[in-house]
Design brief:
- The chain is mostly helical.
- The protein is 74% helix and 0% strand.
- It is elongated and about 80 Å long.
- It starts with a helix and ends in a 10-residue tail after the last helix.
Length: 261
């Protein structure tokens, strides 16, 4: 028992000495809030995002109510975004907006939130290898659209408003194309009701998008397969009025399509 007690004492002493050594080795232990903030910002500007995140986190932990803390809360969100940690970035942005709803840079917070959501499901390979954007998860795209929409609605004169509007147009086209990708999935399996619903959804929610002619064509084909000829003719009439070339191509196709087994 005596030997065991001595061993435990030695282990505890070693742990304490190691902890003290780690504290002595921490280069930031005597830094002021100002120095932590400046070093974090410098790391951010150098592109050393992991180091920037570490300094910002230390700043927030040691000086949560200092004058640098508020700005640091927003800049750490950008550091997380650049470090490809979207969940942490969104959490930091939401915390910043909750604590500072009338901050002069609230518009930037919404803009950064939109950027983060837009890119959050893209892997490292997807950033370099071309992919069909319509096949991406639509949830973060819709959330990004809402973020940019909030910025445009409440901060119409923001320096980020015009870029947000342009991104909303691209997102709208992407979301409509995603619906058509799902509609194609249903059509290839003979799920004509679900396919027609996707086409109608695009007309109702993404009117004016590049996928409108595709949506009308899906509706024509699906309604024909369902023997709902009146609805098929209505969709074909709209297609002919607005996209006559597509209507001519569709007219040459058989009215019934055999779904693959």
């Amino acid at each position: 028992m005596s030997a065991l007690r001595n061993t435990l004492i030695l282990i505890l002493l070693a742990a304490l000495i190691s902890g003290c050594g780690a504290m002595r080795q921490d280069p930031t232990r005597d830094w002021s809030a100002s120095q932590l903030y400046e070093e974090a910002k410098a790391a951010l500007e150098r592109g050393n995002f992991d180091q920037a995140v570490e300094y910002y986190e230390t700043l927030e932990a040691r000086f949560p109510f200092g004058r640098h803390a508020q700005q640091g809360q927003l800049e750490i969100a950008y550091a997380y975004y650049k470090a490809q940690e979207p969940e942490m970035a969104i959490a930091a942005i939401d915390r910043f907006l909750q604590m500072n709803p009338r901050h002069p840079h609230a518009d930037y917070a919404y803009y950064l939130r939109g950027l983060t959501n837009y890119e959050r499901d893209q892997s490292f390979l997807n950033r370099w290898i071309p992919q069909d954007q319509a096949r991406r998860d639509a949830v973060p795209l819709r959330t990004a659209f809402e973020d940019f929409g909030t910025l445009v609605q409440y901060f119409p004169d923001s320096r980020y408003a015009q870029d947000s509007r342009e991104r909303m147009v691209r997102l709208r086209n992407l979301l409509a194309a995603h619906e058509m990708h799902v509609a194609d999935f249903y059509m290839r399996r003979g799920a004509w009701v679900a396919a027609a619903q996707r086409g109608r959804y695009v007309l109702e929610h993404y009117d004016g998008s590049a996928s409108v002619p595709d949506a009308l064509e899906v509706m024509v084909r699906a309604y024909r397969e369902l023997d709902m000829d009146d609805l098929a003719e209505d969709a074909l009439r709209v297609l002919r009025q607005n996209f006559p070339d597509r209507a001519d191509e569709l007219a040459a196709l058989p009215h019934r399509i055999t779904a693959p087994a």
